[in-house]
Design goal:
By secondary structure, the chain is α+β, with helices and mostly antiparallel strands. It has three domains: 90 residues, RNA polymerase, RBP11-like subunit (Gyrase A, domain 2, 2-Layer Sandwich); 120 residues, Beta Complex (RNA Polymerase Alpha Subunit, Chain A, domain 2); 94 residues, 5' to 3' exonuclease, C-terminal subdomain (DNA polymerase, domain 1, Orthogonal Bundle), CATH 1.10.150.20. The chain contains ten helices and 14 strands. The strands form five sheets. Strands 1-2-14-13 form a four-stranded antiparallel beta sheet. The protein has a four-stranded antiparallel beta sheet with strand order 5-9-3-11, covered by helices on one side. It has a two-stranded antiparallel ribbon with strand order 4-7. The radius of gyration is 35 Å and the shape is flat. The two termini are 54 Å apart. The model has no long low-confidence stretch (mean pLDDT 87).
């Protein structure tokens, strides 16, 4: 006989398998059947979309006016130079969230990621190629680096840049991949419990474990909204509303308005039977009633006002709901 439970089993085991400096497996178990994937899938989404990283958002190159230009003495044109720059991963030192860094190189030389290291920034992809300069050539440029999450298109930052800067598409996410798999694990002779293994690989800006902890913080913050006090609007008590004097008047037949035959017939042919139907209409809706002229419109508006209401008036929520139910019942 299956053991009866009142609460699901809480996982107790947590392990980190460090595969390399930038890759690790995060493992937790035992989960009840179906619980592992329920947690692993949103965590993967947060890892890929909410991990904070750094990226160049703009560049200014001396002698180049746009991304399809070229620099004398540099093997790469500007578009190739920018593509190479995007492969270089930066990490701002200290608590800085943005920086503007100036560089200058004289050929002949090959510029790699490691050549961009300075007091303000650390390059975590030191072997990435940037550019090749010929003899007697000089390359001077400035890079704006910012902290962020996800992807930001160059069009979104272009208007904020000073003249001379070329806006860059910025891919901030430091997590290169995040995958998970679910395995069965035996607990007290029951093989139906689960172990989740989340594989995380980063670009070196942060460690896999830091990325995992950050995603947990984001997930907790998103869920915290459900801890707020929930205001539940009480349902309308139809029985009490039925006694409302306004509702009784609104559900009175349009006959009670004492309209002329022409005005009454226009409403009747449009199946407008109750005074409340006119009150719920906007002035434009009433004007658009078929064959209703200005004289008839003015008469109806005046008669409704004499009855204590106005066309297009805002009614109390409970009265409006009860009135609409009456109208629906009439049409059924």
């Amino acid at each position: 006989m299956k053991k009866i439970k009142t609460t699901p089993l809480t996982p107790q085991e947590f392990e980190v398998e460090q595969i390399s400096e930038n890759e690790a497996n995060i493992m937790a178990f035992p989960f009840e059947t179906g619980y592992a994937i329920s947690l692993a899938h949103p965590l993967r989404r947060f890892l890929l979309s909410s991990s904070v990283g750094y990226a160049p958002i703009a560049i200014k190159i001396e002698g180049a006016k746009h991304e399809f230009d070229s620099v004398r003495g540099m093997l790469e044109d500007i578009s190739d130079f920018i593509l190479n720059l995007k492969e270089i991963r930066f990490k701002l030192n200290g608590n800085a969230t943005e920086a503007e860094i100036n560089y200058s190189f004289t050929g002949p030389c090959t510029i790699k990621g490691s050549d961009l290291n300075c007091e303000e920034v650390e390059i975590v992809t030191p072997n990435a190629h940037l550019a090749t300069l010929n003899e007697d050539s000089t390359l001077s440029f400035s890079i704006k680096i910012a902290q962020g999450i996800g992807y930001v298109a160059s069009e979104d930052t272009h208007d904020e840049l000073e003249d001379g800067y070329i806006a860059l598409d910025a891919y901030f996410t430091p997590v290169r991949s995040a995958t998970y798999k679910i395995e069965n694990v035996l607990v007290a002779d029951n093989p139906n419990f689960e172990r989740v293994i989340i594989n995380i690989r980063t670009d070196g800006q942060i460690s896999p474990l830091e990325a995992f902890r950050n995603s947990l913080e984001v997930m907790y913050a998103q869920l915290a909204v459900f801890n707020s006090e929930i205001s539940i609007k009480a349902p309308v008590a139809i029985e009490r509303v039925e006694e409302n004097p306004d509702l009784k008047k609104l559900t009175t037949s349009v006959d009670s308005l004492g309209l002329s035959a022409r005005s009454f017939n226009c409403l009747d042919r449009s199946s407008i039977k109750l005074i409340g139907e006119i009150v719920l209409m906007s002035t434009n809706d009433l004007k658009n009633v078929k064959n209703l002229g200005k004289k008839s419109y003015d008469e109806i508006v005046d008669k409704v006002q004499e009855f204590g209401f106005a066309v297009g008036a805002d009614l109390a929520d409970d009265v409006a709901i009860a009135l609409k139910k009456k109208i629906e019942a009439k049409e059924a």
